[in-house]
Specification:
Elements (H helix, E strand, L loop, with lengths): L2 E4 L2 E6 L2 E6 L7 H10 L6 H19 L4 H22 L1
Antiparallel strand pairs: 1-2, 2-3
Helix pairs in contact: 1-2, 2-3
Length: 91
C-alpha cells in the first residue's frame, strides 16, 4: 500500500482503485498547505510546511491506511508546532 513514484508520476491508492497524479497536478492537499502556510507565516517557510504535509500524508497512510485531508492537516500542524518549539529553545 502507499504511493509508488515512477517517471515523475504518482500512483495513489484511493480505496481499492488506483489513480494517477502527476507532479504538475495540484496536490490533493493544496488547501491544507495554504491554511498552514498562513497560520505559520513568519515561523516556517512554505517549503517546510509542504514537507510537513507530505510527511503527515505518508505517516497517516502507514498508520491508518488512509490520509483524509483533515487528518493530514492535524498531523502536519503538530509537526510544525514541534519544529517551532525546537527552534525557540535553540534561541
Amino acid at each position: 500500500m502507499g504511493t509508488k513514484r515512477q517517471e515523475g508520476n504518482f500512483r495513489m491508492r484511493v480505496g481499492e482503485q488506483m489513480t494517477d497524479h502527476t507532479e504538475t497536478d495540484p496536490t490533493p492537499y493544496a488547501d491544507v498547505e495554504t491554511v498552514l502556510c498562513d497560520e505559520f507565516a513568519g515561523v516556517h517557510s512554505a517549503t517546510t510546511v509542504t514537507r510537513c504535509v507530505e510527511a503527515a500524508h505518508y505517516g497517516a497512510l502507514e498508520v491508518t491506511g488512509y490520509a483524509h485531508p483533515s487528518l493530514v492537516e492535524r498531523i502536519a500542524r503538530k509537526h510544525l508546532h514541534v519544529l517551532a518549539l525546537v527552534a525557540s529553545e535553540r534561541g
